[in-house]
Amino acid sequence: MTTPLPSDHLRLTTVDTEGRVRIEVQGDLDHDSADLLLEETMLQLRSRPGIQHLHLHCAELGIIDSIGMSTLLMIHRRTTAAGVRLHLDERPANLNRILRTTGTLDFFIAAQPAADFPEASTHDHHTATRSTEADST
Q1: 119 burial type by CB count under 10 A (0-12 exposed, 13-18 middle, 19+ buried)
Q2: Do 55 and 89 form a contact (C-beta atoms < 8 A)?
Q3: pTM confidence score
Q4: 88-125 pLDDT, tens per residue?
């Protein structure tokens, strides 16, 4: 059984294969947590110079506020500057609504072809999880 995430909690799980990185976003992307996503994205861009695609898997994205939206736009600018294609995968209705309302849906859609993140075998990928929740140890 999965415990629901608190509303102020963001959890990121990063999976990478040659040429691609997927960051699974779980929870709210807001003023309290947006820096975590930006930091993880920049870490992946710096540490993987051969990366061609960055996938943000948004199926479990909760609330997104203006700071979260601004962070997505900043990530798009930085991935574009690095020659990396940004994908917003499995966007929930609330994210699509915000993208439509702000006039940025076409901007993000145009940046991504319809390609799935390939499943990798256990020997050619790396997974890391980061969270905004304070360590209890």
Answers
A1: exposed
A2: yes
A3: 0.76
A4: 999 999 999 999 999 998 878 775 444 444 443 333 44
